[in-house]
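Technical note accompanying the year-one report. For the benefit of new consortium partners, we illustrate the data format agreed upon in the data management plan: each record pairs a sequence with a structure-token string. No post-processing was applied to the example shown here.
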Amino acid sequence: MEDKNRIKGIIEAILFTMGESVALSRLAEALSVEEGTLKEILEEMKVEYASKNRGICLIELDGAYQICTKIETYEYVKKLVSQPKKRSLTDVMLETLSIIAYKQPVTKQEIEAIRGVKSDFAVNKLMEYKLVKELGRLDTIGHPIVFGTTEEFLRCFGVSSIEELPDIDEVKKQNFFEEAMEEVSTSLDVPV
């Protein structure tokens, strides 16, 4: 009985991980179990899953098996799946996004020169969030990728084009530049 429960657990793990139907022959090969014996175990599992307390079921599709949600749980699953994922932007990501928005098209090297640190993670995350995209490559040595904002960026920030982004106050911009230069000279202990 212990071996059968172990086999059931392995079947469950395989079918859950695959997310699609798996042929009986492939399951039998993976488990080193005869197809007839495996089919009996799968039929037992179907009955166990059919219990009213279970949210999943085991279905057979032309000699292949798949784990699925029960139809009666669909409305609950749908509520969760249809909720938009909340994504938050860290300060680093906002800083990187601001640079891209105001300097686009911009290379990663230019972003890093402005920020003073590597920006791979922030740029990749912003691309994952569909706020930033690759616009192409520069026709220079190394052909660096240039980045810009997306329609999703405009939608999220409530503007119809990048021209609608707020202007940067020139006085604040100059103050920021001076603070940055002072910080660099302090860290390097070199007068600017």
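Partners are asked to follow this layout when depositing records. The radius of gyration is 28 Å.
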